[in-house]
Write a sequence for this structure.
């Protein structure tokens, strides 16, 4: 079965089994709602343990989760550092022009003139729109705002994203 990361448990919170999660999904409200199944994987592990969300709330930049049957700090302490994932079956079809993070990370960014820029390594969500981080050789990372003026075409089959570098983006 294939799994896709939706968050990372960074710490525990209190003594009642709550964990602090950094979300890595576009759909935190959907992914972390009560009753949903998540899988906790140790870093680089191929198998995880199934967890059911009992409670979820937003706290600062984190999602706070409590899992069914794990309402004690001693039970969730071993989960610190684990990746939270969903199975491929839990992913819904997205509307045209929308993509999951795992589909974008790893794509090659090229300009509309054919210049290869580098590989997309990370997605940031600072506010109004996402920002794709492009790792370049011998240059600092390029930050591409995900707006129609910059992202011209996403071709998953070819593994490429065609972009137009607006003035000021590549200093």
């Amino acid at each position: 079965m294939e799994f896709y990361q939706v968050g990372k448990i960074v710490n525990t919170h209190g003594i009642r089994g709550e964990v602090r999660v950094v979300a890595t999904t576009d759909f935190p409200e959907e992914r972390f709602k009560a009753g949903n199944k998540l899988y906790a994987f140790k870093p680089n592990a191929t198998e995880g343990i199934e967890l059911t969300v009992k409670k979820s709330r937003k706290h600062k930049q984190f999602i706070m989760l409590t899992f069914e049957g794990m309402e004690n700090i001693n039970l969730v302490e071993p989960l610190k550092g684990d990746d939270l994932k969903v199975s491929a079956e839990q992913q819904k079809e997205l509307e045209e022009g929308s993509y999951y993070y795992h589909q974008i990370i790893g794509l090659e960014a090229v300009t509309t003139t054919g210049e290869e820029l580098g590989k997309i390594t990370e997605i940031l969500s600072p506010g109004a729109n996402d920002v794709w981080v492009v790792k370049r050789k011998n240059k600092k990372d390029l930050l591409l705002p995900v707006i129609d003026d910059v992202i011209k075409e996403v071709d998953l089959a070819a593994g490429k994203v065609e972009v137009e570098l607006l003035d000021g983006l590549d200093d």
Notes: The two ends are 43 Å apart (CA to CA). The mean pLDDT is 90. Residues 28-31 form the longest helix (4 residues). The helical segments are 28-31, 73-76, 101-104.
